[in-house]
Amino acid sequence: MAIMTMIWGVLIGIGFGLALSLSGASSHKLIVNALLLRDLRLMKIIMTALAVGLIGVNLLDAAGLAHLKIKPAYLLGVTLGGLLFGVGFAVAGFCPGTCLVGAVERKLDVLFVVLGGLLGATTFGLLFPRLKPILIDRFNYGEVRLSQLLGVPPLILAGLLAIGLLVLAWWLPDRRET
Q1: What is the spatial distance between Cα 68 and Cα 158, in angstroms, rounded to a whole number?
Q2: What is the 3-state secondary structure (H, E, C) of the chain?
């Protein structure tokens, strides 16, 4: 069973990478223009992928085929991590998925992004015992689900969010008017 799970994971990863490559999502120029809100095609791709993922994961969970483990909501760590990720994304022009696709596409500049990501992850791993009391333990609200807070079944909430994302993706122009 574990081997089949790994094979499925590899096949899904290859498919995801292929979709990123074919959509142009590994283009530094497209990513930077999306972050600058000059070209919204990548945002539309991301919103569509999120909508499909929301429905897919929640259907798998409802059918008992996925076992979602909700991570604790530790606000300080998530906020600082999100800021660091966002700055790195904006400066590098790549996120973890697109930089790996760029590496497969033999883009040389992406090697610095991959090495920087590995260095950052290693540094965080080494510093984690000292950072945990500050970033994780402080402001830790435990496992929180939006569906529980709102009192809405997860699949219904996922459907509503997916519809909202698809409507927004359809409504946004491909390119921003200048």
Answers
A1: 14
A2: CHHHHHHHHHHHHHHHHHHHHHHCCCCHHHHHHHHCCCECHHHHHHHHHHHHHHHHHHHHHHCCCCCCCCCEEEHHHHHHHHHHHHHHHHHHCCCHHHHHHHHHCCCCCHHHHHHHHHHHHHHHHHHHHHHHHHHHCCCEEEECCHHHHHCCCHHHHHHHHHHHHHHHHHHCCCECCC
Q: What is the dihedral of CA 119, 19, 167, 71, to 10 degrees?
A: -40
Tens of pLDDT, residues 148-177 = 889 999 899 999 999 999 999 999 887 765
pTM greater than the 0.85 cutoff: no
d(CA 96, CA 9): 17
Residues 6+ apart with CB under 8 A from 55: 158, 159, 162
* Residue ranges covered by each domain of the chain: 2-171
Residues 158, 54: Cα–Cα separation, whole Å? 6
Phi/psi at 146 (nearest 5 deg)? -60, -40
CB atoms near residue 105 (< 10 Å): 14
